[in-house]
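## retry 2 of 3
previous attempt timed out at serialization; input unchanged, resubmitting
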Amino acid sequence: MALPNEISTNKLTRLIGTHECPVIIDFCVDDDFSEDPRLIPSATRHPHTEISTLIPALRDKKVIAVCQKGLKLSQGAAALLRTHDIDCEYLEGGIHAWRDAGLPLVPYEKIPEINADGHTLWVTRLRPKIDRIACPWLIRRFIDPRAKFLFVSPSQVNNVAEKFDATAFDVEGAYWGHRDTDCTFDTMIKEFCLETDSLREFAKIIRGADTNSHSLAPQIPGFMAASLGLSRMYKQDLEQLEAGMVLYDAYYRWLRDAKDEIHDSRSKIAVTS
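## retry succeeded, writing output
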């Protein structure tokens, strides 16, 4: 039974990847972090000695404090944040419990640097269809919830990346791009070590739609139709991205939680097999 103000690994893993995921902050000291420099998906690092700088950004948010073992650092940080009326719990057992449960951890070296505004900045080609919506969805749900995305003409992606310290993706020659038969979404889940069953299945649907390989999964034609419909509904790429987040959330939750559920038109409730 979880203690007050404590969250289990099982409960937290159900929240990660959803729009309801709390803000996750890793308070590990540098020596502890250097032993295993990986983060729980969507987490950011912050010194426990500078908690006061977090207060303005955490107002009205649900927060999870994390440290190596779920002891003094995360419990102390969570308690201190609660004195500022911030709803904060700590992760039971810390990073070690998460790791020992075989749950995904993101290599810190793979995450682009947080800029002065407190988020990662990414740039890709304008007028996205599939991969260029899929990748921002993955980044916001599993890497950096505050990530910002720039959509520019194809010829200027690398120039904008250089001038604005942004990370280019889904453009020829970029590290975050297509590799062999993989699309950029495949590359990201592999490099970020996010190859869960649900995301691997999602990658197959995205790859099939992005490369016109509809035989990979029966959901691909419908997914492609919805994606192309969104591209026609919105002239502004950022508006299309926000609408696409809902579509991708729905597909992910279906893959993770509802694949075996069917709907019987003779009943008002779903029938599960």
